[in-house]
Amino acid sequence: MQEVALAAGVTRGAVYWHFKDKADLFNAMMDRVSLPFEQSTETLNHAAPAQALLAIRAHLKVVLQRVNDDVRARLVFEIAMHKVEYNAEMTRVRERRIAARGLHVALLEKALLAARRAGTIKSRQSGRQMAIGLHALLDGLVQNWILDPEGFKLQPVGLRALDTYFAGLTVAE
């Protein structure tokens, strides 16, 4: 917290005036960068079943684009993915991350099941299995790119990987 205070040009007491601890500060940072992602999930809730797969792709494209283009969001995600130690002090941060993952998987599952009802998905996997796989693919792409941004271009590689995943869902098993 002392480093935060120095970087902000305020006293440590001023930081504690606004945030009760590191977890509170970190969750506030996550709120700020996560809101646009959460807003893009609204497209999943309002898509017609026949357009659900396209809505999922559009939502995931927004995520990839934002991580690629927004330096501030990328830095916060880098901290969350590679630098946070989930000790007792950071339990609320871990719980928040798990809750966000659960919400994202649930929204993907709902949209994937709508796409199945519309006939655009043929896979017999459960909606949850498909959603977890899709979320894991996205999360893995983002984590690996943040670890080594020079290793691959996030947007084109990410979109091709997602399209490959979607293609697998459209084949009857």
Which properties best describe this structure?
mainly alpha; Tetracycline Repressor, domain 2; 0% strand; elongated
Question: Overview of this structure, please?
Answer:
The protein is an all-alpha fold and 173 residues long. The protein has a single domain, classed as Tetracycline Repressor, domain 2 (Orthogonal Bundle). The chain is built from nine helices and no strands. It has helices spanning 2-8, 12-18, 22-40, 42-46, 52-69, 71-83, 91-117, 127-147, 154-169. α3 crosses α6 and α5 packs antiparallel against α9 (154-169). It is elongated.
Q: Can you lay out the helices and strands and say which pair or pack?
A:
Elements: H1 2-8, H2 12-18, H3 22-40, H4 42-46, H5 52-69, H6 71-83, H7 91-117, H8 127-147, H9 154-169
Helix pairs in contact: 1-2, 3-6, 3-7, 5-6, 5-7, 5-9, 7-8, 8-9
- Report on the biggest sheet: none
Query: Average pLDDT, to the nearest integer?
Result: 84
In N-to-C order, the SSE pattern is HHHHHHHHH
The domain tally reads: 1
